[in-house]
Each structure stands twice: as C-alpha cells, then as structure tokens.
Amino acid sequence: MPAARGPAAKALVGSLRFYQKYLSGLKMGSTCRFDPVCSSYALEAVSVHGAFKGTILSAVRLSKCGPWHPGGYDPVPESGFWSTQTVK
Predict the structure, then answer these.
(1) CB neighbour class for 64 (10 Å; exposed up to 12, middle 13-18, buried from 19)
(2) Cβ-based neighbours of 38, under 8 Å, separated by 6 or more
(3) What residues have CB less than 8 Å from 5, skipping those under 6 apart?
(4) How far lies 4's CA from each of 13, 19, 29, 33, 76, in Å?
(5) Global pTM value
(6) 82 phi and psi, to 5 degrees?
(7) Low-confidence ranges of the chain (pLDDT < 70)
(8) Gap between the Cα atoms of 19 and 41, Å rounded
C-alpha cells in the first residue's frame, strides 16, 4: 500500500489506524460481510486515491452495508478508475 499523499490523506489514515487499533476491537466479533473489511478498504482507498476520492469510494462501500447486498470480495479499484462494483 502506498504512503498517503497530502496532509488531508495523512490525517484520514491516522484516524483509520486509530479506529482499527482502539475502537474496532470493541465490537463482538466480525460484522463486515466484505473482504477486505471496510476499515482496511477505506485505508487503502485513501492511500491509493487520495483524501477526496478515497473518501467517496469508502462512502460508496459503506452504503453497501446491509441485508440488501450479499457482500463478497470487493477490492479497491486501481488508480485512475471509479469502478465500485463488487467482484464475485
């Protein structure tokens, strides 16, 4: 995973790392139906695409959480693409 570019992306990465280290463990078991889990997806999206596009990709991913979506393998799109479809 590349290093975050810019101060906004670095701040978001720091916030996501804080969540992963201190808050995520408070849940009772794994609740994410996707692979990679949502916080890892957001971390990679912000690192690869920057703060703005990474936040949008993460919000789209979070909007898929719920019983209406089957989940599955959903990688971060490569740099330069906006695809948000889940790979099955």
Answers:
(1) middle
(2) 32, 58, 61, 62, 65
(3) 50
(4) 7, 17, 29, 26, 15
(5) 0.82
(6) -110, 10
(7) 80-88
(8) 13
